[in-house]
Every structure is written in structure tokens, then in C-alpha cells.
Amino acid sequence: MRITKKLYTESHNLSLDLVITDPKDGLRIAVQCKNYSSESVGNGPLLKLEAGKRFYKCPATLFITTTSYTSKAIEYATQTRMEIWNGLMVEEKIVKWMKKASVSYPFFT
């Protein structure tokens, strides 16, 4: 399966970093990534992603951060069915994929 993507530049992205499309079923997912060193993600960035989702007509959203989410952000994500990942979840998914694909990298051993 090949997933297609479209990257968006900061000038007109409406808080989207990319939209990925699954060619199998055509599902479009609006994605936003934030690399914060210590700040938890609050409602603001999630609200912007929701607006971008609607503008680009994506039925699903995914917000990825290197830190954590505030309790209000988690509540908002739950109510809007927004998938939220933190750095640990991303690492777990990469490790799981690597084991399944029999791939090894030094920084995950």
C-alpha cells in the first residue's frame, strides 16, 4: 500500500503540515506536527488543526508533538475524534514497524 502526501508551506497551510491520503480507501488525514522542548500542547493548536481539516475537507486529523497535551486538549481531542500522539507513541510505532519489517537502526537498539 502506498500512502500519498501533500506538504503545505507555512504561508497558506491553515495549521496543516501535510495531508496524507490512503489510496486504498481515499481517506484524507490532516496532520500537524509540533516540536516543543517542554511546553504542553493546549487547545489552540488543536482548534487550528480542526479548522484546517474542514478547509481541506479531510474527515480525520492527527496531531503529533514531542511533548504532552494539557487535560483540556485531551478532552477536546476526544470530543472531536482527533487522534493525538506524543513522542513516545511515535517511537513505539516506529519500533513496532521496524520489528515487523525486520529493520534495525542503531538508535533504537
UniProtKB/TrEMBL annotation:
GO terms for molecular function: endonuclease activity; hydrolase activity. It comes from the Bacteria. It is an enzyme of class 3 (hydrolase). Keywords: Endonuclease, Hydrolase, Nuclease. Its EC number is 3.1.21.-. Residues 11-87 form the Restriction endonuclease type IV Mrr domain. It holds the Pfam family Mrr_cat. PANTHER family: MRR RESTRICTION SYSTEM PROTEIN (PTHR30015), TYPE IV METHYL-DIRECTED RESTRICTION ENZYME ECOKMRR (PTHR30015:SF7). This is Restriction endonuclease.
